[in-house]
Design a protein that fits this description.
13 helices; alpha/beta; binds (3S,4R)-3-hydroxy-2-oxopiperidin-4-yl beta-D-xylopyranoside
Length: 323
């Protein structure tokens, strides 16, 4: 394990290795906490909008685009020389109540899709470098997940979304993003077939995001993840780790923190060894800003900085991997 000094930031080391290093960011702490702003700009060169660009928060009603939070995040990033991942255009979750299957004709759904993607991607053209165009469309057993978009438009909604995003910003890198599809398994096979099919149809897709929501007692098999990254490379696609966190159950013991550190370090090593793995993004900045305690009762401490902005063993494991 490294030292306790933080003079060599992850950002400086990652830039030297040619990989993006990022965190998911919320507008409120960015506005309210100086320590949050300082740590973010020092340690990272990429941010993801955690919730600000999701359909529900952004579109409380059909006429409104509530861009204020996303604008603050994007402006902060660009002011600090960081790149932005836009998350996410289409998802089955966090949609507004007005977006209900059955309430519109197919033609109206197409209009809503076109307006949404054209307006959102168009607004940040040249500012948001990477988009998670479609999030979590595949279920663990490999079939497509139910969503308003699937019921309204059928499986073709995925290709439509990528085409519209490309039209709105031809330079943006467009990703399909999902969880539990990091290693080799039926779900990652289904994601592989999906993106291969999209490419065969000439759909503009540039990468696959691996969310990587993990737990400290269960390390993923590095070789398996490397194999999956390599087969996507075979299709000419990039891979980004988009939402990594390593949750710990209960009050973290020293062993939990070491296990967590090893997992973070190993996953970053897999990325550094693969030329098509271009970014490693954590889902939040500190344990005090993580979604895990809200989402999994009794779990937490999933990030590399603790609730007091102090680096944890996992932080030094990332530094060691980058060094
Ligand atoms: C989470 C946010 O972190 C929470 O604040 C929100 O309440 C629910 O969504 N996969 C994703 C992310 O793609 O958008 C999710 O983010 C976490 C799981």
């Amino acid at each position: 394990m490294g030292t306790t000094e933080t003079d060599q930031s992850l950002r400086v080391l990652a830039e030297a290795r040619g990989i993006g290093i990022g965190a998911a960011v919320a507008a409120r702490p960015l506005r309210d906490e100086q320590a949050y702003r300082d740590l973010l700009a020092r340690e990272f060169n990429m941010v993801t909008t955690e919730n600000a660009l999701k359909f529900g928060p952004l579109r409380p009603d059909r006429e409104t685009f509530a861009f204020a939070n996303a604008d603050e995040i994007v402006d902060f990033a660009l002011d600090h020389g960081m790149s932005v991942r836009g998350h996410t255009l289409l998802w089955h979750h966090m949609n507004p109540p007005w977006l209900k299957p059955g309430d519109f004709l197919r033609r109206e759904w197409e209009t809503i899709l076109r307006d949404h993607i054209g307006t959102v991607v168009g607004r940040y053209r040249g500012k948001i470098a990477v988009w998670d165009v479609v999030n979590e469309a595949v279920r663990d057993r490999g079939d497509l997940r139910d969503s308003p978009w699937l019921s309204a438009l059928g499986p073709d909604y995925i290709a439509m979304a990528f085409r519209l995003a490309h039209k709105a910003d031809p330079d943006a890198r467009l990703f399909y993003n999902d969880f539990n599809a990091e290693g080799m398994n039926p779900k990652s096979d289904a994601v592989y077939s999906l993106v291969k099919g999209l490419l065969a149809d000439g759909v503009p897709i540039h990468g696959v995001g691996f969310q990587m929501h993990l737990a400290s007692h269960h390390a993923p098999d590095s070789e398996d993840v490397a194999k999956n990254v390599a087969r996507l490379n075979g299709l000419g696609l990039e891979v980004q780790i988009t939402e990594i966190d390593v949750a710990i159950k209960g009050k973290p013991t020293e062993k939990d923190l070491q296990d967590q550190a090893r997992i973070y370090g190993e996953m970053l090593q897999v990325c550094l060894a693969a030329k098509n793995a271009t970014a490693f993004v954590m889902w939040g900045l500190t344990d005090g800003h993580s979604w895990i305690p809200h989402h999994r009762k009794g779990w937490g401490a999933a990030l590399v900085f603790d609730g007091h902005y102090q680096p944890k063993p996992a932080y030094f494991a990332l530094r060691d991997a980058l060094d």
